[in-house]
Design goal:
This protein has a 4-stranded mixed beta sheet, with helices on one face. The longest helix is centred in the middle third of the chain and has 25 residues. It is α+β, with helices and mostly antiparallel strands and about 240 residues long. The mean pLDDT is about 95. The structure holds glutathione. The site of glutathione (GSH) has 11 residues, from α1 and α3.
Length: about 240
Amino acid sequence: MMKLYSGDLSPYSARVRMQIYAKGLTDIAIERPATFGTPKFREQFPIGRIPVLDIDGDMMPESEVIAEYLEELHPTPSLLGANPRENAQVRTLARIGDIYVMNNMFMLSPQTRAATRNEGIVELLGGQVIRNIKALDRMIGTDGFACLGRLTLADCALVPAMFLVENVLSGTGLENPIPKAAKVAAYWEAIKTQEPAAKILVELHRGLEERRELIRSGAFEKMMAAAKQAMDAAEKAEGAT
Ligand SMILES: N[C@@H](CCC(=O)N[C@@H](CS)C(=O)NCC(=O)O)C(=O)O
């Protein structure tokens, strides 16, 4: 049985989980890797990030690669288009969700808990998020879906991206740009009601609450410091060999 290494609060993992739910795939076990955040995890997975699809011991990283692989393996119901041009449209909007919004939000998120915020980072990455939400407003479908009038891989990438913008950006002192982007705002309200989207949003909110509790109690800072120490020690040991 295939396994998806995933975490509730991981937006990239949520993207693949949404696809799995939308396609009704029941033969993929979804697990949090026990070694995540440790040198052991990096030993097993060089990029050191989730999601990873474990195909009987053959490890596949990168959410977009996994998503495309699952589409090839299980072409129906399709979350791609009906022809090459439609596929390109789906992929363009998915890239807006991934590279233009989610990646900037992910890199920005440590600033929400920094003792002293780095305003240069906030301005650079937050500025990109705001600019890209405006761009998305000119590209997004107006019938409740990102494109093609039905759920596609574009929605799977955009839902976790919108979740981050709505719930994390304000922690850096920036205003949520979604309400000012009328088409994106309408899309966001509509897509939330689709079952696979609603399901990952419950998981993402659960993960966010858990994370906030860890931050409030001081446990998260300790976990991060311990992980850094272990990584530094592992790198030092590697350098000595
Ligand atoms: N480009 C990767 C990004 C994956 C990613 O950044 N995952 C985060 C969680 S959402 C992670 O594992 N971070 C751990 C780290 O940065 O050490 C993908 O699309 O899968």
